[in-house]
């Protein structure tokens, strides 16, 4: 029987690449696209010439397509169901949980780095999804993993240490952990350095103005809007610390591109330090990854790198998955 792999849409290209690299002998089909695209895939791969036999070995699809075409997928007897980011199934009332639980599957695998997120009940729901079986008539069959309530009843007289030990005993036959220390990564150890940077003159000006403007809220004198205002004030201060140009009024007029570039750098203590670091890193032939939580800051970085004549690639939420993978490949291939 074939394998069904259900994953986040953004990871599908990577699943395709990995299957091609590590299992080229398998016919792996990416079941995505428009309604018409999927109809063509079903015609050629699900039921070619009406023979009711699947030509594919692995079918990879997204959560959304799996939900949309669950009736089609339910007609196939699957050898295994693999769900990436399996903690998406922590709610047994969700549409995705109910849909995937109804499939005819011999074996299930949930892949997740966070099986326990909020409470034990969610973990027990994941284990319930894995261990429930179905009879030939499609009714829910036996269950070899207890419910959260049954676990609580069993351990109500136990100490916390005994409860943890019992939970580990229950999980042991079902969980395979892949630890970093067990892998031969062949990479250098990470060295983390925190460098404190002073604000530029214009950053200090805007930082002080923000504090002065919101003095009453910060001192607790405006309690009515305190919760909302404090969050907004912190966000404004974070913007000050990144770059003054995150405020439109901070950008002065300039006559030439060279002047504009110089003002751009001098308006941020972080950018002044980055300019020095990039110069040294470029001499050593290094490639550099720069992260920011603000897309507006990435816009400023693009402006700086263009002005400095440095080649760069940008990735944010607006970049489609296939293009994102191309940019990753391009970055990795550069010597």
Description:
The chain is an alpha/beta fold. It has 2 domains: 3-182, Rossmann fold (3-Layer(aba) Sandwich), CATH 3.40.50; 201-333, Rossmann fold, CATH 3.40.50.300. Helices cover 47% and strands 8% of the residues. The protein has 15 helices and 7 strands. It has helices spanning 12-22, 35-46, 63-68, 70-73, 95-101, 120-131, 148-154, 160-171, 201-213, 215-218, 226-242, 257-266, 269-283, 295-308, 321-333, and strands spanning 3-7, 28-30, 58-62, 77-78, 80-84, 104-105, 108-111. The strands form 2 sheets. A 5-stranded parallel β-sheet has the order 2-3-1-5-7, sandwiched between helices. A two-stranded parallel ribbon has the order 4-6. One of its GO terms (molecular function) is ATP binding. It is found in: Nucleus. It comes from Hemiselmis andersenii (Cryptophyte alga). This is Helicase ATP-binding domain-containing protein.
CATH superfamily caption of the largest domain: Tandem AAA-ATPase domain
Strand order of the largest sheet: 2-3-1-5-7
- End-to-end C-alpha gap: 43 Å
CATH fold field value of the largest domain: Rossmann fold
Q: Output the radius of gyration.
A: 27 Å
- Give the DSSP E fraction (strand runs of 2 or more residues): 5-15%
Under CATH at level 1, the class of the largest domain stands as Alpha Beta
Which series of helices and strands comes N to C?
Answer: EHEHEHHEEHEEHHHHHHHHHH
Tell me about the biggest sheet? Answer: 5 strands, parallel
Q: What is the tally of helical segments?
A: 15
CATH architecture of the largest domain: 3-Layer(aba) Sandwich
Q: Based on helices, strands and strand pairing, what is the structural class?
A: alpha/beta
Average of the residue pLDDT scores: 85
Count of beta strands: 7
User: Any idea how many domains?
Assistant: 2
Shape: extended
Helix content: 40-55%
> Spans with pLDDT under 50 lasting ≥5 residues?
134-142
GO cellular component, one term: chromatin
Main location: nucleus
Organism: Hemiselmis andersenii
GO molecular function, one term: ATP-dependent chromatin remodeler activity
């Amino acid at each position: 029987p074939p394998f069904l792999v259900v994953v986040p849409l953004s990871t599908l290209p990577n699943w395709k690449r990995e299957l091609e690299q590590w299992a080229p002998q398998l016919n792996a089909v990416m079941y995505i696209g428009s309604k018409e695209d999927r109809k063509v895939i079903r015609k050629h791969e699900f039921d070619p010439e009406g023979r009711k036999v699947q030509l594919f070995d692995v079918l990879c699809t997204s959560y959304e397509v799996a939900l949309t075409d669950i009736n089609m997928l339910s007609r196939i007897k699957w050898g295994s169901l693999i769900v990436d980011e399996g903690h998406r199934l922590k709610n047994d009332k969700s549409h995705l949980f109910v849909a995937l639980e109804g499939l005819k599957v011999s074996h299930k695998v949930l892949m997740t780095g966070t099986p326990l997120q909020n409470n034990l009940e969610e973990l027990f729901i994941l284990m319930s999804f894995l261990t429930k079986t179905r009879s030939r008539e499609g009714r829910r069959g036996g269950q070899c993993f207890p419910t959260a309530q049954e676990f609580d009843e069993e351990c109500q007289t136990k100490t916390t240490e005994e409860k943890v030990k019992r939970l580990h005993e229950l999980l042991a036959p079902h969980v395979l952990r892949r630890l970093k220390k067990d892998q031969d990564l062949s990479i250098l150890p990470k060295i983390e350095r925190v460098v404190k940077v002073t604000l530029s003159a214009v950053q200090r000006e805007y930082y002080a103005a923000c504090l002065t403007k919101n003095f009453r809220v910060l001192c607790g004198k405006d309690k009515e809007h305190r919760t909302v205002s404090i969050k907004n004030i912190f966000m404004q201060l974070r913007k000050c610390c990144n770059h003054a140009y995150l405020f439109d009024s901070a950008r002065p007029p300039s006559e030439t591109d060279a002047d504009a570039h110089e003002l751009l750098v001098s308006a941020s203590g972080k950018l002044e330090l980055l300019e020095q670091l990039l110069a040294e890193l470029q001499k050593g032939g290094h490639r550099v990854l720069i992260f920011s939580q603000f897309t507006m800051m990435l816009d400023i970085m693009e402006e700086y790198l263009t002005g400095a004549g440095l080649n760069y690639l940008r990735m944010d939420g607006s970049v489609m998955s296939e293009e994102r993978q191309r940019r990753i490949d391009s970055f990795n291939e550069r010597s």
